[in-house]
């Protein structure tokens, strides 16, 4: 029986690939033990137990960016966390540590190295995060979602997708999806989503441009995010919801999408052949622009800066695209050519190769 310690948390970009790999491992090895490392503050605190996996909390340890009191205490706190995790690895007879990035992965990599246990890494973003760049010095087993990711020892394995997405039959599920969201079977659907926390510019622009989108013959399924403050315009063929726990159905209903360019979202839309306008998050290290580069280059997506994503852009640029049904079809084919549904299987094979 193999014991896996999976480390990653904070955002859906870390948690969803982790859970996809955990599900693949347990489907292949029903007697395997999967332990997940996470923080109390991240999405994993809810999602991991809901999925039935054991969750062990570690302190949230962001790297200090400047010299202050927090920086002085960082190394002692990191050392305590590493010591505790090394003890866990030995006491639970962990066979391999698999990290998916984020704050929680850094002490896990150090602890695995101290305990002499193999390390496997998955980097979801085109631009690798600090924790994974550090961990890559400790192992040659580094899986990446995108070709061209700059990190030591990269091996392209693709993006691990949730089973409900990887195994989705969109055509078969579409009638259920339309009923679930109260959509019209005679209209194509534009899916709009800015992520779980929402995206102010994206949400405000779509609400302002709603009438033009509907006049073009489309209907809109707009997932605003739970912290959004936009108001429902109250239009026919416009469905606004703050949160969606059935993204498989939302994706089944979608004929086109407008979205941020988080790695998981880009990979899900591409794998399912859904063309999209990508509006990268304008803050951070700019990785979202690069996440969408391959599918945009293939012709399956359109990239627009957050500052330029205004109602006038939607009316003059997006509406003509949506009006050209043949172009939408071709973009869907191109999107699928840049995606893949087998990332979970390939990453699990990669972990087994490291164990061997």
TrEMBL record:
InterPro entries: GlcNAc_MurG, Glyco_trans_28_C, GlycoTrans_28_N. Keywords: Cell cycle, Cell division, Cell membrane, Cell shape, Cell wall biogenesis/degradation, Glycosyltransferase, Membrane, Peptidoglycan synthesis, Transferase. Its EC number is 2.4.1.227. Pathway: Cell wall biogenesis; peptidoglycan biosynthesis. Its main location: membrane. Belongs to the glycosyltransferase 28 family. MurG subfamily. Residues 5-142 form the Glycosyltransferase family 28 N-terminal domain. The keyword Cell membrane applies. Residues 189-335 form the Glycosyl transferase family 28 C-terminal domain. It is found in: Cell membrane. It catalyses: di-trans,octa-cis-undecaprenyl diphospho-N-acetyl-alpha-D-muramoyl-L-alanyl-D-glutamyl-meso-2,6-diaminopimeloyl-D-alanyl-D-alanine + UDP-N-acetyl-alpha-D-glucosamine = di-trans,octa-cis-undecaprenyl diphospho-[N-acetyl-alpha-D-glucosaminyl-(1->4)]-N-acetyl-alpha-D-muramoyl-L-alanyl-D-glutamyl-meso-2,6-diaminopimeloyl-D-alanyl-D-alanine + UDP + H(+). It holds the Pfam family Glyco_transf_28. GO terms for molecular function: transferase activity. SUPFAM superfamilies: UDP-Glycosyltransferase/glycogen phosphorylase. Cell wall formation. Catalyzes the transfer of a GlcNAc subunit on undecaprenyl-pyrophosphoryl-MurNAc-pentapeptide (lipid intermediate I) to form undecaprenyl-pyrophosphoryl-MurNAc-(pentapeptide)GlcNAc (lipid intermediate II). This is UDP-N-acetylglucosamine--N-acetylmuramyl-(pentapeptide) pyrophosphoryl-undecaprenol N-acetylglucosamine transferase. UDP-N-acetyl-alpha-D-glucosamine binds at residues 11-13, 125, 162, 196, 288.
């Amino acid at each position: 029986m193999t014991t896996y310690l999976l480390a990653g948390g904070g955002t859906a970009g870390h948690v969803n690939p982790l859970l996809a790999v955990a599900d693949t491992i347990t489907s292949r090895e029903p007697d395997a033990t999967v332990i997940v490392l996470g923080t109390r503050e991240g999405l994993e605190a809810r999602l991991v137990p809901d999925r039935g996996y054991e969750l062990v909390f570690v302190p949230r340890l962001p790297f200090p960016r400047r010299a202050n009191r927090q920086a002085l205490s960082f190394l002692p706190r990191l050392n305590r966390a590493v010591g505790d995790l090394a003890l866990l690895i030995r006491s639970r007879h962990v066979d391999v540590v698999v990290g998916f990035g984020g704050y929680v992965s850094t002490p896990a990599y150090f602890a695995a190295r101290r305990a002499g246990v193999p390390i496997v890494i998955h980097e979801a973003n085109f631009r690798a995060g600090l924790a994974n760049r550090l961990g890559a010095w400790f192992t040659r087993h580094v899986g990446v979602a995108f070709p061209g990711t700059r990190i030591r020892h990269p091996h392209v394995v693709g993006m691990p997708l949730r089973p409900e997405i990887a195994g989705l039959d969109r055509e078969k599920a579409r009638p259920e999806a339309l009923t679930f969201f109260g959509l019209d079977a005679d209209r194509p659907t534009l899916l709009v989503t800015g992520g779980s926390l929402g995206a102010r510019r994206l949400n405000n622009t779509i609400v302002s441009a709603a009438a033009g989108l509907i006049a073009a013959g489309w209907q809109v399924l707009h997932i605003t995010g739970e912290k959004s403050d936009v108001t429902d315009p109250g239009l026919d063929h416009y469905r606004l919801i703050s949160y969606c726990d059935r993204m498989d159905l939302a994706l089944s209903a979608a004929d086109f999408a407008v979205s941020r360019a988080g790695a998981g979202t880009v990979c899900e839309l591409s794998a399912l052949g859904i063309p999209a306008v990508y509006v990268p998050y304008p803050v951070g290290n700019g990785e979202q622009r690069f996440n969408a580069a391959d599918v945009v280059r293939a012709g399956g997506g359109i990239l627009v800066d957050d500052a330029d994503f205004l109602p006038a852009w939607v009316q003059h640029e997006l509406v003509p695209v949506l009006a050209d049904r043949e172009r939408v079809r071709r973009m869907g084919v191109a999107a699928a050519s840049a995606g893949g549904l087998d990332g979970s299987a390939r990453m699990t094979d990669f972990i087994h190769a490291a164990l061997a």
